Amino acid sequence: MHTINPSKLHHSKWTAVTPRDKEKHFIVTQLLRDEEDNVVDVVIEAVHSHRETVLPWQRLKDDSVWKMGWQ
Q: Which of 24, 28, 60, 69 is the most buried (most CB within 10 A)?
């Protein structure tokens, strides 16, 4: 598991362990916060297709799905 500060995820780069549809590299484009200003979700964009996906930021901590940086 990665240790992540959710407030510093904006513009961070990630590599999918199992790429789908040639989407391997992603960048966090937006942080979605709750009423108390806590990061709840992130918007990640595939570099290849520019497709955006919203997911809970905690999912990026799973080493079997995501690698930190572009590899």
A: 60
Contact 17, 68 (CB under 8 A): no
Task: Quote the CA–CA distance of 68 and 36 in Å, as a whole number.
Answer: 27
Q: Which residue has the tokens 């598991």?
A: 1
The 3-state secondary structure of the chain reads CCCCCHHHCCCCEEEEEEEECCEEEEEEEEEEECCCCCEEEEEEEECCCCCEEEEEHHHHHCCCCEEECCC
**pTM, rounded to two decimals:** 0.91
Residue holding tokens 């809970």? 56
The widest CA-to-CA distance across the chain, in whole angstroms, is 37
